Amino acid sequence: MFIGHWAPALAASAASRKAPPLVLLFIGAQLVDWAFFALLLLGVEHMRVTPGISAMNPMDLYFMPYTHSLLGAAAFAGAVWLGRSLVLRDAVGGLIGGAVVLSHWFLDLLVHVPDLTLAGSPPKLGLGLWNHPAIEMPLELGITFGALWWYVRMRRPAIGRVIVLAAVLLLLQAINWFGPVEPEVTAGTSYLAFFAYGVATLAAWWMGKSETRQPGMG
Description:
Blueprint: H1 7-15, H2 22-29, H3 31-42, E1 46-49, E2 59-63, H4 70-88, H5 91-111, H6 133-155, H7 159-178, H8 187-208
Antiparallel strand pairs: 1-2
Helix pairs in contact: 1-2, 1-6, 2-5, 2-8, 3-8, 4-5, 7-8
């Protein structure tokens, strides 16, 4: 799952006027992966290229107990809730943001081959839709652009900015699915991920600045 992780961010923004700003929800939706690629750089978590490990993704995510365990994802979600509650006195917004963070693990559960854990140790979990492109690809596009449609309907951003975000997401996903694969994991792997997440988040921020109404209005 790649751009599909941003579907809960868009849906949360569409659903509630109490949701944090869209840019923060975009960061939260991928917070687990921001942390994973940072820990990968530091040598704390690990992955390797293993061609054939799944039909769609050759990355063997064999050690990521802190970011991709349910406990770890829940800790990130709890930190978001606690931070927003204490700093901004916004417990509801913190709860929405925390739920978006936690959604990352459950969406990964759908597509990953078994490499996720509950608390960092086996059993390893994953329903493996990466082995079924005919299901995974329309599912990912469907939830992402369905959520974007709902967001546009409820928030009424400038249509030109919507098109830019949609194009960015489609381009990033196309590269993810069909682009060349590096033969080994390097520091560049993390930097490329940071760049992709940053570009999408910047596009979401730009679109969000043009919102013209709140959910539930008119």
